[in-house]
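Meet the record:
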Amino acid sequence: MRAAAVRTSKGQPLSELTLASLPWMPHTQLAQTMQRLALNGPHDQVTWRKVISRAEVVAHTFTPKDTALMINAFAKARDACPSKEVGRFLRSFIREYMPPIIQTSRAIDLAQLAHGISVCHAYDRKTFEQLSHRMQTFNDMDSQQISLIANAFSREKHEDKKKGHPLLRKCCTRETPFAND
């Protein structure tokens, strides 16, 4: 079996040892553990509360990749996560830490951030404007990245005609997409 297939396949729930080490996990390992927890479980609110508590402690150390993994883990496990705690954590995280993270993000990170924020219902107009502004610097976004971002922007009904990637401008306006082409 390929390594990528092993990482994404449904596996065993996280071990007791891994769950016991949550209070001491560094940011990178925590983000990866959150992905594994979202996919494999255990899918209980007590475990997710522990994860959120640790994420609050190490939030200032998250890289753009860690942030994208974390937010998408919340999105994947939105039925198992305690929604009030996730919402509170994401709102404060977005307000405090998101602007510098967006400025150092790569295109794939921006796509995952926009998608995860939208799926978690943590929309913030200022954050989406920053995402849109940052996308201007990328000329080599692939179709998957553009699709994720366009989906997130349209789901949140975010309109930003002056900024953003040219393809997104067409996707995120109220006009019929590609009508003038």
Residues 1-8, 174-181 have pLDDT under 50 and may be disordered.
